Amino acid sequence: MRKLLRGTRYLLAGLPSAIATLLAPPLLAAVALSSGLAGLGLFAFPRATVVLRRWAEWHRRRAAAYLGVTITPRDLVLGKGLRAQWRQVLDDPEVRRDARWTLRQIATGIPAGLAALALVGTPVLTVVAAPLWWLFPADEPLRLLAGIPVTGWGSALGLAAGSVAGFGALSWWAVPRLAGFHARGCVAALEPTAEELLTERVGELTESRAGVLDAHGAELRRIERDLHDGTQARLVAIAMRLGVARESLPDDAGALAKLLQEAHEGAEEAMTELREVIRTMYPPILADRGLDGALAALTAGAGVPAEVELQDLSAGAARAGELGKLPASVEAAAYFIVAETLTNAAKHSGATRVLVRLTRDGGRLLVEVTDDGIGGVNEALGTGVVGIRRRVAALDGTVLVSSPAGGPTAITVELPCAS
C-alpha cells in the first residue's frame, strides 16, 4: 500500500507540472526569435535557459527522491556580458539536454499522470456514485464500469466492491511500476551519457596533464637555474683554485702535482658533464632568449645551412616572425625536436639546405622541418626520430615522417599548446 500511495502521489503531482511544461517549447522559441526581431531575446534567452534548468532540476530531484538515488546538482550560472552568456548557453550540452527533457516530460508525464488518475480515481468515483443510484430515473439508470446499469442496492454494492477489488489490484501492480518508469526516465534524460562522461573525463585529464607538464617545465627551469648559478659556479671556483694551486707548485712537487692535475682535470670534466645535463634538462637559452631566439641560435650553429620561419595564425590575424607565449613544456619539446632534426640532417642526410617552419594556429603548434638530403630515414635503426616520437607522445601530439629514398625528408610535428 505504501508503494501505491507514493507512486500515486508522484504521478498525480507530476501531471499538472507536465501540462505546465507544454508552455516551455513555444516560450523558448518565441524568446529565441525575438532575439533577431526586437533584440529583447538577446538578454532574455540566456535567462530563460536558467529558468528551464531550475524547472528541470526540480523534476530531477523529485524523481531521484522517489527512486532513492543520489544525484549531483546541475547549476547554471551565467557569466558576465551577453556574448559570453550566449556562448555559454550554446556550448553547454546540459542546456540541450534540458530542451530534450521538456519533450520527454510532455510525452510521458501527461499519459502517466492520466493513467494514474484513471486507475486510482475510477474505484473512488464508483464508491461515491454507487450509493446514489436511486437518484437517477428508472428509464436512465446510473451506469458504472463498462456501462452496467445499477438497478438496486445489490448491483450498486456489487459494482462498487468489484471496482474497488479490480482497480485496486490493478493500481497496486501498475502505479508503482509506472511511477518508477517515469522517474528513471526523468533522471536518465537529465544525466550525461557514458560517451559524454568519457569525453568530460578525457578533457579533465588533458587539462590536468597540461598543468603537470607546465609545473614540470617550471621545476626544470628552477633546477637549471640552481645548477647553473649554484653547483656550476662552485665547480668553476674549485677548478680555478686547483689551477692556481698547480701553477704555484714547484717543478719537483712530484706526486702532489699529479694529484692536483687529476683533480683539476676532473673538475673540468665535471663542469662539462654538468653543462650537458643542464642543456638536456632545459636549455638555458630558452629561459634567456625565448623559443624564437633559441631557434635562431640553434640554426645559426647547425652543421648545415638552415632557415627559420615563424608565424602565428591565432587571434584571427597572421603575425610573421613570432609565436606568442607558449607553455614551457611545448617550448622545450619544439626546441629539442628542431635540434634533433638538424643534427640528423647534418650527420646523415647530406643536405645542403634545411627549412624550419613553426606555425601556431589557435591551440596547436605545427613544427615542420624539411631538408633536401638523400632521405631514407629508417626508424628501426634507432634514429633520433624515435626520441622525437616519445617526446611528442608525452604531450599528446602527432608526428608524421616523410623520407623516401632520394629525399627530401620532411618531419611534421603537431603539439597542443592551448594554455
Architecture overview:
The chain has 419 residues and is an alpha+beta fold. It has three domains: 2-189, no CATH class; 196-281; 288-416, Histidine kinase-like ATPase, C-terminal domain (Heat Shock Protein 90, 2-Layer Sandwich), CATH 3.30.565. The protein is 66% helix and 10% strand. The chain is built from eleven helices and eight strands. A six-stranded mixed β-sheet has the order 4-3-5-6-8-7, with helices on one face. It has a two-stranded antiparallel ribbon with strand order 1-2. Strand 3 (306-312) and strand 4 form a beta hairpin. The protein starts with a helix and ends with a strand.
What are the main properties of this structure?
3 domains, Heat Shock Protein 90, kinase activity, Put_sensor_dom, EC 2.7.13.3, 419 residues, 8 strands, two-component regulatory system, 6-stranded mixed sheet, membrane, alpha+beta, two-stranded antiparallel ribbon
